[in-house]
Design a protein that fits this description.
Layout: H1 3-15, H2 23-31, E1 52-55, E2 58-60, H3 63-73, E3 80-84, H4 90-98, E4 101-106, H5 109-121, E5 127-131, E6 143-144, E7 160-165, H6 174-178, E8 180-192, E9 195-204, E10 207-216
Parallel strand pairs: 3-4, 3-7, 4-5, 7-8
Antiparallel strand pairs: 1-2, 5-6, 8-9, 9-10
Helix pairs in contact: 1-2
The structure holds S-adenosylmethionine (SAM).
The site of S-adenosylmethionine has 26 residues, from strand 2, helix 4 and strand 4.
């Protein structure tokens, strides 16, 4: 299979054709090899216009929705980003191409560990992954999957320029809003099971602005300020 050709076609037909023209973002999608992040049985579908199963009842999201969420984050290369829901690590890699540091939290330990191993093999050294409940934010979570090799250090009261939540929240996780920096943006699917709105929450001088970018469908965000299973 010519994966580079498939990636180019994914970028042209699924992302650019739907109105996303951010060059830095498009370059990251051309670079990051999505087929490395899916289970072997899914490789032939890796560049299809759809979400795919990654096991444990979870999915790697459709390429376009990942692009839309990252585009809405409006990342600068100096930004520090928090991702809730590492999953396969695909979106983590894209964020690491576009920002200075990526902190990522995944509640399923097996997924967190295999994403971390994959990202390390690919040479990313600006990503830290923790296992825990992302609804509590970075400071509320339990432990890093690999404290030694990722030069992990506990950072108190860290604030994020961007927060991206890759699972659907039934309530607004206040801890995440608290951990947004001034001028920070958070992208979050918000609503009921099987039907949510994609929201951007922006913080400026402690004022919160909410914008709605339309309907979407994500797996549930499970945790203290999420669904209770
Ligand atoms: N962005 C991922 C990728 O590129 O593969 C896909 C994320 S998948 C749609 C959502 C992920 O969120 C799942 O792996 C799920 O286990 C995780 N998740 C759900 N609730 C969570 C929570 N409270 N904290 C951390 N991760 C959570």
């Amino acid at each position: 299979m010519d994966f580079a050709k498939e990636r180019k076609s994914m970028v042209e037909r699924q992302i650019k054709a739907r109105g996303i023209y951010n060059d830095r973002l498009l370059d990251a999608f051309l670079k990051v090899e999505r087929h490395i992040f899916v289970p072997k049985s899914m490789i032939k579908y890796a560049y299809y216009d759809q979400p795919l199963s990654i096991g444990h009842g979870q999915t790697i999201s459709q390429p376009y929705i990942v692009a839309l969420m990252i585009d809405l984050l409006e990342l600068n290369e100096d930004d520090i980003v928090l991702e809730i829901g590492t999953g396969s690590g695909y979106q983590t890699a894209l964020l690491a191409e576009l920002a200075r540091n990526v902190y990522s939290i995944e509640r399923i330990e097996t997924l967190a560990r295999s994403a971390e191993e994959r990202l390390k093999k690919l040479g990313y050294n600006n990503i830290i992954i923790k296992v825990g409940d992302g609804t509590l934010g970075w400071n509320g979570t339990t432990f890093s999957t690999d404290e030694k090799t990722l030069s992990y250090k506990e950072e108190i009261d860290i604030k994020f320029d961007g927060i991206i939540v890759s699972a659907a929240a039934p309530e607004m996780p206040q801890k995440l809003i608290e951990q947004l920096a001034d001028n920070g943006r958070m992208i979050i699917p918000y609503g009921k099971h099987f039907s949510q709105d994609l929201l951007r929450i922006s913080k400026k001088k402690n004022k919160i602005k909410k914008e709605n970018f339309g309907g979407c469908m994500f797996v549930p965000l499970i945790g203290e300020y999420g669904w209770k299973k």
